[in-house]
Design brief:
582 residues, alpha+beta, elongated, five-stranded mixed beta barrel
């Protein structure tokens, strides 16, 4: 017969509870120390507890796409807005749809609320359009004779140096932006449109084109770029392939208006964008890298523009209808470009953030911007904490009344679970942007019952072993495998429910699911690495091992019966009655 393996621990043996308990305590101290070292000693609070800003956006149909408002585009818009806000370092921002046309954005207090508010509804429709003509931003009141070429007269009243545009793109060469006087603009617009459009062979189409040119010319001459209402309305219904009028500021901060050709490159052709500081020029710029398709388009259009004369050698970078930069091109460019202008660090990084995460598929209008105070949330939190405290006290009273001395183990284990939960929530705030809201508090309160249930399962298994006549120390070890299996199955079901709830829901309900899942995992850790070792160590003490009436493990109170001893069978000897048989 093979000798038993002495190095292998048999099932139900106590192992080394002291070492397990020491490792658990070291991990707890390390997490707590990390919390204090990080400076985040309290969990981040959500908007319902800390206050913040709530923004309601209403979707508008995109020009040329009357049926653009649908579930797919709304979900895409929610995803882009959420990425933009998170890109600013704003955590726990809630972005969700409401009805068919509205999106609700909740931004907690204490984050980049102002920057986030600017970006949430910015459509970020980016286009690169060729410049056909440019003039000062003021309305044009008269149109005397112009030069035969239709280009601005040399005697223009506005100084070309004053309106010089020094913006560049990549290796683009900066050239002055000519600013024409009122004597030249009508003819300049008409000539530019003729150069940009192909004549139609039919008279009706030609008449329609002339009418469109006349309307565009009128818009250009009467536009006052200093008025926001006019700037907003001038091209809000324009499609990418339309010739448009737009406004923008030059490097001197003065308004200019442009006639721009159809879009050659769209924002979807931009692969990445960054706000960087140009050491050579001492200014903030936004650099852009194009996709492979965008690189081909950009190379083609810059090659054409490089052969034109000013201002038709410029391309305008148009963001949501406004010209943010209009650099001139002196040579064919490749896979990247830059947007320069009067950027600050914040504005450059904001624009890069918007371009990096893409344009919204819909236009949005702010319906309301509401400041949420934390007063109501504070009252609800106080009420929730009171309810949780009452529930905890009732659980402790029940444990003490029913389990007596064993209640001390349960209470200490609940305390350890509470410390771990609080510490990890505090660390997850700066780590992954977790913020505690009211549903999350409810999840933590529900977890008290889940954790207490695990202790009860183990205690009852130990009591069952004692009822069968075993002493405490073997009862503790024999009860553990059965209790562990039950606890793991129960916690797995709870965690699975929390995971499904987190995936299929949005907004605050996810906070409840996340907290429930976290505390369920911590319950497994606490029971296996804290409660079990403590139970093993206490089973060696006289108070518990002797079955003291207040230990909760008194064999008499549990109705334990001594094991039945089987009596030996009595051998029966048959005595023959017949003398002959004897």
């Amino acid at each position: 017969m093979a000798a038993p393996n002495k190095g292998r621990r048999q099932a139900g043996s106590p192992g080394r509870p002291g070492r397990t308990l020491a490792l658990f305590l070291i991990a707890m101290v390390a997490l707590t120390g990390g919390m204090f070292w990080s400076g985040h000693v309290t969990p981040r609070l959500g908007i319902d507890l800390a206050g913040g800003t709530s923004i309601t956006l209403e979707a508008k149909n995109t020009p040329g796409k009357p049926n653009a408002i649908n579930k797919t585009n709304m979900d895409t818009a929610v995803s882009i807005i959420e990425r933009r806000v998170n890109g600013l370092g704003v955590s726990e921002a809630e972005v969700q749809t409401q009805g068919e046309k509205n999106i609700i954005v909740n931004i907690p207090k204490g984050t980049n609320e102002k920057q986030a508010q600017k970006q949430v509804g910015t459509t970020a429709q980016l286009y690169f359009r060729p410049v056909l003509t440019v003039a000062a931003g003021a309305p044009i009141t008269a149109q005397p004779s112009t030069s035969p070429s239709g280009s601005p007269s040399p005697s223009a009243s506005a100084s070309a140096d004053k309106a010089e545009n020094s913006d560049k793109a990549g290796d683009a060469e900066s050239s002055p932006t000519p600013t024409s006087s009122a004597t030249t603009q009508g003819r300049a617009v008409t000539d530019a449109l003729k150069k940009d459009t192909t004549p139609s062979p039919t008279p009706s189409a030609t008449a329609g084109g002339d009418a469109a040119s006349a309307a565009l010319e009128k818009t250009f001459t009467t536009l006052d770029c200093s008025k926001q209402a006019q700037r907003t309305a001038v091209n809000q219904d324009a499609a990418p392939k339309d010739t448009i009028v737009a406004c923008g500021k030059n490097s001197g901060g003065e308004w200019e208006k442009y006639v721009l050709g159809p879009a050659e490159i769209e924002g979807t052709d931009v692969d990445d964008a960054k706000g960087v500081f140009d050491q050579r020029r001492g200014m903030w710029i936004v650099t852009m890298d194009f996709t492979s398709g965008g690189t081909k388009k950009f190379s083609t259009i810059t090659g054409k523009l490089a052969q034109q004369q000013s201002p038709m050698n410029q391309f305008a970078i148009v963001l949501d209808g406004d010209v943010v930069s209009a650099p001139s091109v002196g040579t064919q460019l490749g896979s990247n470009a830059e947007i320069s202008g009067s950027f600050t660090q914040q504005s450059a990084q904001d624009l890069a953030n918007i371009l990096s995460y893409g344009a919204l598929p819909l236009s949005f209008q702010e319906q309301s911007v509401t400041t949420v105070t934390a007063a109501l949330g504070g009252e609800q939190l106080e009420a929730g904490l009171i309810a949780g405290a009452i529930g905890l006290v009732l659980v402790i009273i029940y444990l003490v009344a029913y389990y007596r001395g064993l209640a001390a183990i349960a209470i200490v284990s609940l305390g350890a679970s509470g410390v771990l939960t609080y510490t990890i929530m505090s660390l997850l705030g700066p780590g992954i942007g977790f913020a505690l809201n009211l549903p999350a508090v409810c999840g933590a309160i529900v977890a008290i019952g889940i954790t207490a249930d695990s202790f009860i399962v183990y205690f009852e298994r130990v009591r069952d072993e004692i009822r069968e006549g075993r002493t405490l120390r073997p009862a503790v070890e024999r009860a553990w495998p059965r209790a562990r299996r039950t606890i793991l199955v129960s916690d797995f079901v709870s965690f699975l429910a929390a995971a499904v709830l987190f995936v299929v829901t949005v907004g605050k309900v996810q906070g409840f699911a996340f907290t429930l899942g976290l505390t369920t995992l911590l319950d497994v850790v606490v029971v296996m690495f804290f409660t079990k070792p403590v139970m093993t160590l206490l089973a060696r003490t006289k108070f518990f091992s002797s079955g003291h009436p207040w230990s909760g493990l008194d064999p008499k109170r549990l109705g334990a019966k001594p094991p039945l001893r089987r009596s030996r069978p009595v051998a029966r000897v048959s005595v023959p009655t017949d003398p002959k048989e004897a």
